[in-house]
Amino acid sequence: MASEAIKNPLSSLSIENSADFSVPKTNNYSQAITSINNHEPLTAIDNIRNMTCSSPMRHQNTNLTVLDVYDEAALIGKDFERIIDAYGTETIRDLVPKVIRVLELLELQAAKNERDADEYLEMKTRIVRLETEKNETRELREKFDRELELIEEQWRKEVKTKQKKIID
Questions:
Q1: Which of 9, 145, 5 is nearest to 73 (CA)?
Q2: How far apart are CA 78 and CA 145, in angstroms?
Q3: How far is CA 10 from the centre of its chain?
Q4: Which of 69, 74, 72, 67 is nearest to 56 (CA)?
Q5: Are 64 and 113 in contact (CB under 8 A)?
Q6: Which residues contact 86 (CB under 8 A, 6 or more apart)?
Q7: In this structure, are residues 17 and 77 in contact, taking their beta carbons and an 8 Å threshold?
Q8: Is the pLDDT of residue 135 over 50?
Q9: Residue 167: per-residue pLDDT
Q10: Percent of the residues in the chain that have a pLDDT greater than 70, as a whole number
Q11: DSSP one-letter string for the chain
C-alpha cells in the first residue's frame, strides 16, 4: 500500500481509511474568522474556502500532466485534513469519494493529453522533415531546369553555327 501511494497518491485517500481522518477536532484552524471586510460575517463555507484553494494550479494556465494531478490530489488531501480538523469527518464523508472519482478521471484525461501532446510533437517533427524534403526536391528540380535551359541554349547556338556553315 505504501509503494502504491507513492506511485498514485489518489489510491491512499479514502474515507474508509480512518487513519487519514482521525485527527483531534480542536486545532487553531477551528477558530472562526468573523469577517472578511469587517462588514459581513463569514459563513462556514467562507471559512472552508479560506482554508482551501492552496493549489498553485489555481493561478496558472498550463498543460495539466499526471504529476500535476498527483500534486493537486496531495493538496486536496491536506485541505480535507484541515476541514476535518475544524468540522469533523462527517462534513465531508460523502464528498471524498466524489472528489477521488473526479481526480481519477482527471488523471486519465491528463494521461490522454500527454499522449496526444507526444503524438502532436511527433507529427510536427514529421511535417518539418517532409517540408524540408519538399524544399530540397524543389531546389533540385529548379537546378535541373536551369541546367537543362543552359544545355538547350548551348545546343541552339551550335545548331545556328552549323546552319550558318551549311548555308555559307
A1: 9
A2: 71
A3: 18
A4: 72
A5: yes
A6: 25, 27, 29, 30, 47, 48, 51
A7: no
A8: yes
A9: 85
A10: 63
A11: -HHHHHH-GGGG--SS-HHHH---S-SGGGSPP-BSSSSSB--HHHHHHHHS---GGGG------HHHHHHHHHHHHHHHHHHHHHH-GGGTTTHHHHHHHHHHHHHHHHHHHHHHHHHHHHHHHHHHHHHHHHHHHHHHHHHHHHHHHHHHHHHHHHHHHHHHHHH-
Q: Which three cell numbers stand for residue 149?
A: 535551359
Position of cell 463569514? 42
If you average pLDDT over every residue of the chain, what do you get? 77
pTM exceeds cut of 0.90 = no
First to last CA, the chain: 105
Mean pLDDT of 136-141: 97
What local confidence, expressed as pLDDT, does residue 91 receive? 86
